[in-house]
Specification:
single chain; mainly alpha; 2 domains; three-stranded antiparallel sheet; two-stranded antiparallel sheet; 10 helices; 44% helix
C-alpha cells in the first residue's frame, strides 16, 4: 500500500502538470468527478502562482504587458515549480529566468529590473536589527580601525546595473502611470540601495565608493580589506565620505572588532 506522502507527492506533481491524469484515480469523487477535481486544483495553482508573480513583479508586468507576462510566468513556473507552501518564495529565480530567455534582445534589461523588484520583496520580509549608534566608532582606538567589521542591517540590499534602474522603477509606479517621459536604457549606471524604513522601503542611488564599500561589508570583510578593495575599484575613493554616507543612511547595524591572534597581541608577545 502506498503511503500518504507518496500519494501527496504524485497529486502535487499532477497539479503542476497537464498530462499526469493518472493521479485523478487517487482522488475521491465526493460529488465532483476526480478528473474535474484535479483540473480545479490545477486552475487554482496556476492562478495563485500567477498572482504571486504579479505581486512581486508589477514593473516587469507593466513593461512587458499583461499577455507577455502571463505567458512568461507560465514558462517560468514550469521551469521553476514552487517547492514551498509559501508562494512568497516563488519568484526567487525569475530574474535569472528572464536573463536567459531575453539575452541578446533589446529587453535584456528586464532581468536587472526583476532583480531590483525581487530585492524589494526581500527587504520587505527580512528580519531587522536597529541601526548602530552614530558615536560607536569613537569607542575604538585608531590603531584598531582596519580590524573593524561594519555589520550591515538585515533589511537592505544593493542592486547594480548598467541601465537606469531607479528611473525606470519610479516611472512605472502606480502613481506615475501617466508619466510618458522617455528613459534612455543605456543611461548612467545605477547602484541602488534598498533599505526598509519604518513604513516604507526607500530606494536611492549610492555613490560608487559607498556602494563598493557596502558590498565589501556585506561580504563580511573588515574595514582594512574593504578599504583596499574600494580604493582599487573606485578612482579617488574617499573612505571618510563613504563611511559617513553609509552610517548617515542607517545601513549599519553594529561595529565589531576582530581580536588579534595570540602571537600578535601586545600583552602576550613579551611572555
Amino acid at each position: 500500500m502506498r503511503s500518504l506522502r507518496e500519494i501527496q507527492i504524485e497529486i502535487a506533481g499532477a497539479i503542476r502538470s497537464e498530462s499526469a491524469d493518472r493521479a485523478a484515480t487517487l482522488l475521491c469523487d465526493d460529488g465532483i468527478e476526480p478528473a474535474q477535481r484535479l483540473q480545479i486544483y490545477r486552475n487554482n495553482h496556476r492562478l495563485g502562482s500567477l498572482a504571486a508573480l504579479q505581486a512581486a513583479y508589477p514593473v516587469i508586468e507593466r513593461l512587458g504587458g499583461a499577455d507577455w507576462f502571463r505567458q512568461s510566468a507560465a514558462s517560468y513556473i514550469a521551469a521553476f515549480p514552487s517547492t514551498s507552501g509559501d508562494l512568497q518564495n516563488l519568484g526567487e529565480h525569475f530574474p535569472e529566468f528572464l536573463r536567459s530567455v531575453l539575452a541578446d534582445t533589446k529587453y535584456a534589461y528586464f532581468a536587472d529590473i526583476a532583480k531590483l523588484e525581487w530585492a524589494y520583496q526581500c527587504v520587505l520580509t527580512a528580519g531587522e536589527r536597529p541601526p548602530v549608534a552614530t558615536d560607536k566608532l569613537r569607542m575604538f582606538a585608531p590603531d584598531d580601525y582596519e580590524r573593524l567589521v561594519f555589520v550591515p542591517r538585515l533589511a537592505l540590499r544593493i542592486v547594480e546595473s548598467r541601465c537606469p534602474l531607479l528611473a525606470i522603477w519610479q516611472a512605472n509606479q502606480t502613481q506615475n502611470v501617466d508619466n510618458h517621459a522617455e528613459i534612455q536604457i543605456d543611461g548612467a549606471a545605477n547602484r541602488v540601495l534598498l533599505i526598509r524604513r519604518r513604513d516604507h522601503v526607500e530606494l536611492r542611488n549610492l555613490a560608487a565608493g559607498s556602494c563598493t564599500l557596502l558590498r565589501e561589508f556585506l561580504l563580511g570583510r573588515a574595514l582594512g580589506q574593504a578599504t583596499e578593495a574600494a580604493a582599487a575599484a573606485v578612482g579617488g575613493f574617499d573612505l571618510s565620505a563613504s563611511l559617513a554616507e553609509l552610517i548617515g543612511l542607517e545601513t549599519i547595524a553594529d561595529i565589531e572588532l576582530i581580536p588579534l591572534p595570540d602571537d600578535k597581541h601586545p600583552d602576550r608577545r613579551t611572555q
